[in-house]
Structure formats: C-alpha cells, structure tokens
Amino acid sequence: MTLKEVLTGLADTNQKLLLSCTEGSFTPASLLNSLSEIKLKTQAHYQPGLYIAEINEAGYLGAVLFEVKREN
C-alpha cells in the first residue's frame, strides 16, 4: 500500500484525525494536496490510532512518517 492510498482512505472517512511529524500537524486531505508524488508513492503501513510508517525495501517497517492523533 502506498502513502497516497493510506491518506486517501483516511481522508474519505468521517474521523477527525491529525497526522503529526516534526514539521507540524496536518489533516490527511491537506497532506494529499501538499506532498510530492514521489513521497506519496512511498510504501507505507497504517497502524490505526498510532502511526503511519514507511515500509523499507526488505519489506520491514522503517521510520515512522506520521503519528496519528485525534483532532479536538
């Protein structure tokens, strides 16, 4: 699954989520509109309620890209 697919799935739900990284907190929809196509093609894993992490070339979880938080 790509980061674009993960973000699209989250944006399509009615859940109010913020995805946090070192650069700030963003909605899934805003990330879809602001991230580069190369970044959106990154293989990723979504752990509901916790994080979105990249999947490295060996197929293992890599760095956490975004921490998942509930929007207040």
Structure characteristics:
72 residues; alpha+beta; five-stranded antiparallel β-sheet; 3 helices; 5 strands
Question: Layout of helices and strands, plus pairs?
Answer:
Layout: H1 3-12, E1 17-21, E2 24-26, H2 28-34, H3 37-40, E3 44-47, E4 51-55, E5 61-70
Antiparallel strand pairs: 1-2, 1-5, 3-4, 4-5
Helix pairs in contact: 1-2
Q: How many structural domains can be distinguished in the coordinates?
A: 1
Helix content: 25-40%
Main beta-sheet annotation:
5 strands, antiparallel
Side-by-side strand order of the widest sheet: 2-1-5-4-3
Derived from helix and strand composition plus strand pairing, the structural class reads alpha+beta
What is the rounded Rg? 11 Å
What is the straight-line distance between the termini?
A: 28 Å
Strand content: 35-45%
Total number of helical segments?
3
Shape: globular
How many β-strand runs? 5
Q: What are the low-pLDDT stretches, counting only 5+ consecutive residues below 50?
A: none
The secondary-structure element order is HEEHHEEE
Mean pLDDT: 94
